[in-house]
Amino acid sequence: MNKIILVIQREYLSRVKKKTFIVMTILGPILMAALFIVPVFLSQMSDEVKQVDILDETGWFVNKFEDSERFKFNNVFTDLETAKNKLSDNKGYALVYIPKPDVSVPSTAMIFSEKQVSIDLKGYIRSIMSKEVENQKLGAEIIKEIRKVNPDFDPANPESSNAGNVVSEEILKNIKTNIILTSIRMGEAGKEEKSFTEVSMAVGMFAGILIYFFIFLFGSQVMRGVIEEKVSRIVEVIVSSVKPFQLMMGKIIGVGLVGLTQFLLWVVFTMVIVGVFQQVMPGKLQKQQTVESFNPGTRIPSGTESAQAIENIEAQGSMDKLIEAVHTINFGVMIFSFLFYFLGGYLLYGAMFAAIGAAVDNETDTQQFMMPVTIPLILAIVVSQFVINNPEGPVAFWFSIIPFTSPIVMMVRIPFGVPGWEIALSMVLLVITFVGAVWMAGRIYRTGILMYGKKVSWGELYKWLFYKA
Amino acid sequence: MSYFTARNITKRYAAHLALDNVSIEVPEQSIFGLLGPNGAGKTSLIRIINQITGPDEGEVFIGNEKLAPHHVDKIGYLPEERGLYKKMKVGEQAMYLAQLKGVSKSDAQKRLKYWFEKFEIQAWWNKKVEELSKGMQQKVQFIVTIIHEPTLLIFDEPFSGFDPINVNLLKDEILNLKKKGATIIFSTHNMASVEELCDNIALLNKSKKILEGKVKDIKTTFKTNTYAIDFDGYTGTALSLLPNGFTLLSETNQDDMRQMVVGLPVKASQNELLTAVMPHVNIHAFKEIVPTMNEIFIKTVNESGNFSENI
Q1: Nearest residue on chain A to B154, alpha-carbon basis
Q2: How far apart are CA A327 and CA A332, in angstroms?
Q3: Same-domain pairing of A183 and A265
Q4: Residues 58-87 of B with CB under 8 A from A
Q5: What pLDDT does B200 receive?
Q6: Is A450 in Cβ contact with B47 (below 8 Å)?
Q7: More confidently predicted of A293 and A173
Q8: Which of A252, A313, A258 is nearest to A101 (CA)?
Q9: What are the two backbone dihedrals, phi and then psi, of residue B258, each rounded to the nearest 5 degrees?
């Protein structure tokens, strides 16, 4: 047992200390951060002035949106259907619909558009709305505070207050508002598609592709490692100290840990880069701005209204604001299953890659064995594109249950919501398969690593499975 | 008292029989030559000793214990096809391989320092293996083979790739290890080194053991009662000097010195030859021609059947 840890240690350290690892660790996050940042820049580069209609049922935001070089805001006062028709007739860019909330302050809005709405427009709308709502709430809070001191205070006449500065940090915290902005694409046939499925698509596809790359990148590293040991002939020295199975598992686990390390470093560095970018160029990336000013002249909602509003807001306080509609995704399930499929898929394919490495004498000979291993992986990515459009269909179901494709396909499906039993079934099958694959790989490995100068066929590999140790 | 025993080992690979009922006994603190042509089964036997594979039939003992997984730490193995991680630093690698054999980190450090100094390679500690010359790599490999102070050592062609100076260095170390108590199994095709180092040998051919015993005894059994005489001062034919029943095997003439190699009849003694020759020539040297291990090897293998075609 101690020896397998030594093997893991060596496999891990020898890779982490390599220059390519360090370069990849630095380059990866720069590329990933660029993925977040570049679209923002690109969306700001278009010079056309776009017409944005505002249908504000609350009346809070009339004339609050200021025209810029890129957007012209236009208030409409009709019902939603008419406004939508008008938008398509006038070739407008987007329609922002702010429905009247039932009880509390406005906190939701919808953007209807034919094309994907640019992120900076969404950011702008959200920041104006939240600033406005926060200002209103702050006003209400202050009036409440002032009334505690001076019950006769008349909000219509702000000068009658004599309470001094009553804005406490707690109030500032309480009034923080999260605006939920849903973008809805209006299809050609007038069919409306909720845009948060796009977010699910993006998240699912991203996770699927990440697992695909991880399996390929680090699976082939396992294979190369095995070939290296075989070619350099050190393997015979090593297997006179440790069991071939220990050597193989040590390698697979060690390389897997390298992958996890790289992945975690990427996440951290990407967050750091995006964070720094936000600091350096505030407002470029959508982000909520805290309320810094209080305008006494604005309309102040009544006391009961704002008290309710505050309750409401507290309930939403911890929401993730970065991507709209992200709240439809269950992040607990998402992260757990990502890690599970990440590791499960890697172990399954890592074992197969190790077996291939053991069966050949050099990397050029790997091709005949690589095909059957890479085909399910590529198939999974191809199928994902159908799955994303129909995450409940039979194709999606079967490919997310079959263990050779499930790590990728299931990850694509999960953001759309998958029944628990399907996830459980897929996971159990994956575990069973990788235990089986590791067993078979161990047998092929054991025989293969000491076999030189022989062109190995599939039939040969099959025989190796039943050799006695 | 034998330290290592293999009893009736049989090993099959699919259709190929690699070892056929082979038994060997290696006395404690001795050097045992495991000989045989390519494909005879030596590597299979060595791999069984190292527990890289297991025998289909038969038993293996170390000391008085049946071979078990924990014995790997007592065995040092220098394979014929050797290698190190090319991209790894020499010191790091030696530490790793020592620890894999169960040596603690601090012990490994101490012992490696000793050996690296002894072999004068301490300057290479932080170099990558690929930067080392082949001979240097071999030294590193030798060190990691013995670093865990194994009681049973298996050297497969240990001298290949060494220059004559380093071959001597290595021979001395091997003899030293024996003196310190190690039992050594030594597989080679270099019969000169077998004669020089080995106490006992076993000869395998075509998966079977065909010869076994003390080197001294084997050589005695293979003696053919042949003697060589260096002489001068005689102008007649050598044959005319020999008594009846004696055969002249060869005759050479170099400068003024002549040599004849004579085969004696079964019962005859070498003194009869001397008595017959002495009155006529000046004898410069008289020696018995003892077969070399090389000759014994070739003779025995050929007699037992041709070289195996299975490599």
Answers
A1: A240
A2: 12
A3: no
A4: 69, 72-73, 75, 77, 79, 81-87
A5: 92
A6: yes
A7: A173
A8: A313
A9: -115, 155
Residues 432-451 of A with CB under 8 A from B: 450
**Do the chains contact at A14 and B101, CB–CB below 8 Å?**
no
ipTM for the complex? 0.81
Strands A94-98 and A50-56: parallel
Domain boundary among A194, A223, A251: A194
Contacts of A358 in chain B (CB under 8 A): none
Q: Confirm whether A180 is domain-assigned.
A: yes
A237 touching chain B per CB within 8 A:
yes
Q: Which residues of A touch B50 (CB under 8 A)?
A: 239-240
Same-domain check for residues A54 and A19: no
Residue B154 contacts by C-beta under 8 Å, 6 or more apart in sequence? B46, B49, B50, B75, B76, B77, B78, B184, B185, B187
Are A240 and B75 a contacting pair at CB < 8 A? yes
pLDDT in tens, A370-386: 888 889 999 999 988 88
Both A244 and A137 in a single domain?
Answer: no
Q: How close does chain B come to A450, measured CA to CA in Å? A: 9
Domain spanning B2-220: CATH 3.40.50.880: no
Give residue A442's domain range.
2-35+203-281+329-464
Percent of chain B with pLDDT over 70: 98
- Domain ranges in chain B are 2-220, 224-289
3-class state of residue A111 by DSSP: strand
Query: What whole-number distance in Å separates Cα of residue A42 and Cα of residue A118?
Result: 9
Residues A345 and A249 in one domain: yes
Name which CATH class applies to B224-289: alpha beta
A396 φ/ψ sector (left φ>0, alpha ψ -120 to 50, else beta) = alpha
